[in-house]
Design brief:
The protein is an alpha+beta fold. The protein has two domains: about 5-65, no CATH class; about 80-190, Four Helix Bundle (Hemerythrin (Met), subunit A) (Up-down Bundle), CATH 1.20.120. The protein has five helices and seven strands. The protein has helices at about 80-95, 100-115, 125-135, 140-155, 165-190, and strands spanning about 5-10, 15-20, 30, 35-40, 45-50, 55-60, 65. The strands form two sheets. It has a five-stranded antiparallel β-sheet, with no helix packed on it. A two-stranded antiparallel ribbon has the order 2-3. Strand 5 and strand 6 (about 55-60) form a beta hairpin. Helix 2 crosses helix 4 and helix 3 runs antiparallel to helix 4. It starts with 5 loop residues before the first strand and ends with a helix.
């Protein structure tokens, strides 16, 4: 009995290069092992490839890769709570959860401010101002701080879905900020 659509185990698929989206792997790989999903007309409409490094499956459908490559880079010398939240933001982008990433980016700014001495239970704008006024943000970054504040406010207070570009903006700024506040000083003090 033939199903209308089905998964077909293939010993050798059309080779594909990709970045493995699993945390702890993240290698740029090529694979030709996995399964194809065949529609009722015999067309391949999705595939699962096996990473040759970590041996875990990655789904490719139109147009997604799951898990995808996380936006941003690992940052060294972060306090555990800051690192946990930053990695949570990155992981959410690998699953295309961009609104969640932007909202968590807002929360990360609050955590950074408190970790650096701001009082708890302030308004978000007070945390952002604390980071800027205490010179934890680099010179000339005020337009970026305002942009992040506006984006985070949109995600938090409006009925608006954030997209990949919104998440990239937030993570690019956060990555720079985390390197400026934690990673570079940590390298010098090693």
């Amino acid at each position: 009995m033939r199903y209308k659509s089905y998964w077909l185990n293939e010993s050798q698929l059309e080779p594909r290069s990709y970045t493995c989206g699993y945390q702890g792997c993240g290698h740029d790989v090529g694979s030709d092992k996995g399964w194809n999903f065949i529609d009722g007309e015999g067309q391949i409409i999705a595939a699962i490839y096996i990473c040759p490094i970590c041996q875990r499956p990655t789904f490719f459908g139109s147009p997604s890769q799951v898990p995808g490559k996380a936006i941003g880079n690992k940052i060294e010398h972060l306090p555990p709570e800051i690192e946990q939240l930053y990695e949570e933001i990155r992981k959410s982008t690998s699953k295309e959860a961009y609104t969640a990433a932007v909202l968590a980016g807002r929360k990360l700014l609050m955590h950074i401010a408190v970790q650096k001495g701001a009082k708890e239970n302030l308004k978000f704008v007070d945390y952002v101002n604390y980071i800027a006024d205490s010179h934890y943000a680099p010179p000339n970054s005020q337009p970026w701080i305002d942009r992040i504040r506006q984006k985070a406010n949109e995600a938090n207070h409006e009925i608006k879905i954030m997209n990949r570009n919104d998440a990239i903006e937030i993570i690019d700024f956060l990555e720079m900020l985390l390197k400026f506040i934690y990673e570079f000083p940590g390298r010098v003090n090693m």
